[in-house]
Design brief:
16 strands; 7-stranded mixed beta sheet; 341 residues; 11 helices; 4-stranded mixed beta sheet
Length: 341
């Protein structure tokens, strides 16, 4: 399922805030539109955010001439950088897109714009191929009949197409393995309930929805064979930032002797960070916790803490599934090998 694409000089996305009640596409025509879509989670998931940001950078300069393209590029770059602090793919994609534009800048504004758009298109196609490879490698870990727990949404909706954690599950399903997914609902914004369950149901993959605080009991009852989740940023030692609640699932899996895997592209690995303590954690609007789909569930005027992500330490992670293979501990040594090939 393609979740974003470029046509008629606009970026088209699926508005994920409306799912599962309504499947609607939205055209983004300006850099401001793209930044708003990223900030408000109309488009979400680290890989999808990165590609959307690259297209957003193009939207910010598409109508510029030689006189104003440099200032527009700088302004658009800063606007997009400010949207989501944790997902490193955002910054990776912006640097790569701007680099392509800068290389073409001596040939004039039109060449600069064309180069940036080509790079964004290339990133979108690469993301699909990357997810397929992640699925291929991850499938080797999945046995026929496995029950798999996942948290949040790391499916097609979090990427350009196919998905990372759900890409592994799709690959197993596509080759005839009988897999069953337990999807954590993922409070406060219910990405597991609204998005993951919707994707899997549409694909005909058996899925059972559970609340976040049921995961431990399900593990203790022997209902879970493995856990696979995505990632928004991975430090070079393997510490991983993912949707809030991932750490809890990892601790429970460790206590229950259930393998816990991360599925993510190499672009999500930030080699500049020593460990998870250096990963910035986004804190979001308090109303995400005090309301559900616009209905208030908590008293007015109470204190709220709403970090969007948590850190799962590397010693809780069995392996990190990438497009170049599966990295196992020691991560700092073995992750680096993938970047050297």
């Amino acid at each position: 399922m393609r979740t974003l694409w470029f046509e008629d000089d606009s970026l088209v996305i699926i508005d994920q805030t409306l799912l599962p009640s309504e499947l609607r596409t939205v055209k983004l025509n300006t850099c401001g539109d793209a930044a708003h879509a990223i900030k408000t989670l109309m488009v979400r998931g680290a890989p999808a955010i990165g590609v959307a940001a690259a297209y957003g950078l193009y939207l910010g300069i598409k109508d510029c001439g030689d006189a104003d393209i440099d200032s527009a590029m700088s302004d658009s770059y800063e606007i997009l950088r400010s949207t989501r602090p944790t997902a490193v793919n955002l910054f990776w994609a912006l640097e790569r897109a701007r680099g392509a534009a800068d290389a073409a800048r001596p040939d004039g504004a039109e060449a600069c714009k064309a180069a940036l758009l080509r790079e964004a298109d290339k990133m979108a196609e690469e993301d699909i191929a990357t997810n397929r490879k992640i699925g291929e490698y991850g499938n080797t870990l999945v046995k026929d009949g496995y029950n798999i727990l996942t948290h949040c949404n790391a499916g097609a909706l979090a990427t350009v197409d196919y998905g990372t954690a759900l890409g592994v599950i799709r690959a197993a399903h596509d080759c005839g393995k009988r897999v069953h997914v337990y999807a954590d609902e993922t409070r406060p914004l219910l990405q597991g309930a609204r998005l993951t369950a919707w994707e899997l149901k549409n694909d005909g993959i058996p899925v059972t929805l559970i609340t976040d605080n049921m995961a431990g009991f399900a593990m203790k009852q022997g209902m879970i064979d493995m856990v696979i989740v995505g990632a928004d940023r991975i430090a070079r030692n393997g510490d991983t930032a993912n949707k809030i609640g991932t750490y809890s699932a990892a601790v429970l899996a460790h206590r229950s002797n259930i393998p816990f895997y991360i599925a993510a592209p190499l672009s999500t690995i930030d080699l500049s960070l020593r460990d998870g303590s250096e990963i910035p954690i986004e804190e979001r609007n308090h109303e995400e916790v005090t309301t559900i789909m616009g209905s208030r569930i908590a008293p007015e005027g109470i204190g709220v803490y709403n970090p969007a992500f948590d850190i799962t330490e590397a010693d809780l992670i069995k392996g990190i599934i990438t497009e170049r293979g599966i990295a196992y501990p020691p991560y700092e040594e073995n992750i680096q090998k993938f970047f050297n090939t």
